[in-house]
Design goal:
Protein name: Type II secretion system protein GspG
Radius of gyration: 47 Å
CATH class of the largest domain: Alpha Beta
Distance between the termini: 101 Å
Pfam family, one: T2SSG
Order of helices and strands: HHHHEEE
Number of domains: 2
Domain Putative zinc-finger: 3-36
Oligomer: single chain
Domain Type II secretion system protein GspG C-terminal: 109-199
CATH architecture of the largest domain: 2-Layer Sandwich
Structural class: mainly alpha
Keywords: Membrane, Transmembrane, Transmembrane helix
CATH topology of the largest domain: Glycoprotein, Type 4 Pilin
Number of helices: 4
Strand order of the largest sheet: 1-2-3
Largest sheet: 3 strands, antiparallel
C-alpha cells in the first residue's frame, strides 16, 4: 500500500476499526516503512494523551443556565404562538367586519327607502289618505333611531343627500304610491339601473 493511503487510515488502524485483511496490510507496511512507522508512533502517543485528559463535568451554575435558557426559550415559543394566534383572530375579525360593512353599505339604501315607505303607510293609517308630498309627513312619525334628513324645503333626502321621488297615485304601484331614489349616479333611470325603488 502507498504511504499516503496508509496515513489516511492509520487512525482507524490504531482504534482497531479496520477489516482483518486491510489491518494486516497496514501492519506489514509500517514494519518496513520508517516514515509510516514514525507517523504511527506519533499518532499512538497523541491518542494516549487524549485518553489521559481529565473528564470535565459541567458546573451546577452552568447546568442551571442551560435549564433557564431552555425554559425561557419555551416561554418565548409559547408567547410567539399566542401572539400569532391573536393576530390571526384579529385579521379574520377585520375581514369579517369589512365584509359586513360592504354588505351593509350595499343593502342600507334599500332599508332606508323601506323604512320611509313604512312611515308613509303610518301617515295613511292615521289620516286615511296618503300625503301629497313627503314634506307633509310630520316629524313625530319619523323614529329618532332612523336617520332621515330634510332639505330646506322640508323634502326627505335619500342616502346621497337628494330628495326622494314620491308620486301618488303611483304609476307602478296602482292604488297607492311610488317611492324611489335616483341612486348613487343621481340620474333618473325611471326606477331601473341603480335607482332604489319600492316596486319590483
Amino acid at each position: 500500500m502507498e504511504c499516503n493511503k496508509i496515513k489516511d487510515i492509520l487512525d482507524a488502524y490504531i482504534l482497531g476499526a479496520l477489516e482483518n485483511e486491510e489491518n494486516n496490510k497496514v501492519k506489514q507496511h509500517i514494519q518496513h516503512c520508517t516514515e509510516c512507522k514514525k507517523y504511527h508512533d506519533e499518532s499512538v502517543r497523541s491518542w494516549q494523551k487524549l485518553q489521559n485528559l481529565p473528564t470535565v463535568s459541567p458546573s451546577v451554575s452552568y447546568a442551571d443556565r442551560i435549564i433557564k435558557n431552555h425554559r425561557r426559550g419555551k416561554r418565548i415559543m409559547q408567547w410567539t404562538i399566542s401572539t400569532v394566534f391573536i393576530l390571526l383572530v384579529m385579521v379574520l375579525f377585520l375581514l369579517f367586519l369589512l365584509f359586513f360593512l360592504f354588505e351593509y353599505k350595499k343593502e342600507y339604501p334599500q332599508h332606508h327607502i323601506a323604512n320611509l315607505e313604512k312611515i308613509v303607510w303610518r301617515f295613511y293609517s292615521e289620516n286615511k289618505t296618503f300625503p301629497n308630498t313627503l314634506r307633509d309627513i310630520p316629524e313625530k312619525l319619523f323614529p329618532k333611531k332612523m336617520l332621515f334628513q330634510r332639505d330646506d324645503n322640508g323634502q326627505v333626502l335619500d342616502m346621497w343627500g337628494r330628495p326622494y321621488e314620491y308620486h301618488v297615485p303611483g304609476k307602478h304601484n296602482k292604488g297607492f304610491f311610488d317611492l324611489y331614489s335616483f341612486g348613487r349616479n343621481g340620474k333618473n333611470d325611471n326606477g331601473s339601473k341603480d335607482d332604489i325603488r319600492n316596486w319590483k
